[in-house]
# Entry
Amino acid sequence: MEFDKENNLDDIYPTQADYYMRECFELAKNALGRTSPNPIVGAIVIDKNGLPVGKGYHKAAGTEHAEVIAIREAGDRAKDGILIVNLEPCCHFGRTPPCTDLIVKSGISEVVFSCLDANPLVKNKSKEFLLKNNIKVFSNVLESEGLELNKFFFKWIKTKLPWVTLKQAQTLDGKVALSNQNSKWITGDSARKEVHKLRNIYDAILVGAKTVEVDNPELNVRDINNSRNPARVILDLNLITKPESNVYKNNAPIYLVTKANHSKELLSGYLKFNGDLNLIQLPEVSSGKINFKSLFEELGKKNILSVLVEAGPTLAGDLVLNKILDEYILFIAPKIFGDIEALSSMKIAPLSEIKDSSEFKLFDYNLIGNDLMLSLRPEVIF
Ligand code: AOF
Ligand code: ZN
# Structure
């Protein structure tokens, strides 16, 4: 597709800018789960004849920004060209120099971006800097998609808390395990593959001790090209998990969340077993419970921008009641257990009024193999 500069730009832009912006989104997505604490960013340079001459995406924090790669590839053809990028370019010295200086130096005459950067060092400042340097700015292109693309980054940069998604799989009658605790293979292969795709883009997976004890999961990413394992966060206030459990075994950081008052000897069993194990010790606010906000603040400080919680009913219920969730992904298998003693997805104290129930809105749904995947969001998001 060519950018037609002969016509009135305002008439032409909506479609052409959308087209290239979508391509920027796709470029950016190559690095999902790899850039924390930075956003994912894709950039394209269009030359003065309307042809794309440079493309790039930000690969990891500390490496060059998307714009730098795209402008370098464009070389001299960037002059009088247009830069399209999904985020307002940066204007500050962070781990890398300001992109706005490079944009001015390259002779680019116009910058098109999707959303303002929420980073207070950048927000609106870059836009103003570009305008002052006689560069046209066209912003808010596909803005809601741009915000959604970087939902992890935007949540964290504004609140210093990670985006928290609860993932569960249940039967049609809302059961997550049989009464004998067997919970393996509720959903089909495709849904399980989908979970591995999710693990591949979240910075951390959080599970409760009970899940580790009963399922002994590995919580790694399997059968996906160029995958990497997320950090694992194990919530084990009473240290009931065995240090030899599978979850402590592989090559990504582990955060063991526990009470403040365990003996050094008990803790050293875990530390000895895994070289990359970090302790997060928090006060117990009531029997068996910690303050979730403190936990997620701690994870946010460790540059964890997104947490996928693979929870059983107790942890799931606590997260819902504490209004911690940004998203709830629920796989529903077309099966009925019917067993009244079987575990339901959420353990929440009985309500007397339906109006007191926790409500979500349906954000998206997909058929994954023979299972339904719902993406739900709470009524109010940060
Ligand atoms: C962009 N393009 O590709 C990225 C941006 O430490 P630094 O130098 O990498 O700066 C990080 C900040 O820069 C980050 O918080 C966000 O505001 C912006 N990231 N900006 O224009 C990019 N990764
Ligand atoms: Zn930059």
Notes: DSSP finds eleven helices and 18 strands in the chain. The longest helix spans residues 9-29. Residues 38-39, 41, 58, 61, 65-67, 87, 89-90, 94-96, 99, 117, 119, 122 surround AOF (ligand 1) (CB under 6 Å). The first strand starts at residue 42 and ends at 46.
